[in-house]
Amino acid sequence: xxxxxxxxxxxxxxxxxxxxxxxxxxxxxxxxxxxxxxxxxxxxxxxxxxxxxxxxxxxxxxxxxxxxxxxxxxxxxxxxxxxxxxxxxxxxxxxxxxxxxxxxxxxxxxxxxxxxxxxxxxxxxxxxxxxxxxxxxxxxxxxxxxxx
Length: 148
Fold this sequence. Notes:
The protein has helices at 67-79, 102-105, and strands at residues 12-19, 30-43, 61-64, 81-86, 100-101, 131-137, 140-146. The protein has two helices and seven strands.
């Protein structure tokens, strides 16, 4: 997330916005993923990476977006604080991520009263997922899975 100086033309980023819902009294800040896998066209005034690979702090990032994604980015920058998260070069998947608030950040239980007071919310424990290691050597890829 602290990508200062490492956003280069051709990089892929996710765009996150942190905001407070002004329509809900006492609303806590939350962070949502607005865009996924967006291509960086320019960072600052540079359209080519520094030939020496030296990081450069920039104030402006230009992304290649569809009109719909540009609208999302414009609204997000107007209503909250924007952060860029660098993507792994081989990661092109999009995730359905719900906004995270402070309770979700610390994985604390939700203390808000439920809409239906007659039932107690019960969450099933998540199933353990295997660890997957992908190795890339030139144009060869191999994947190995490990169980917990």
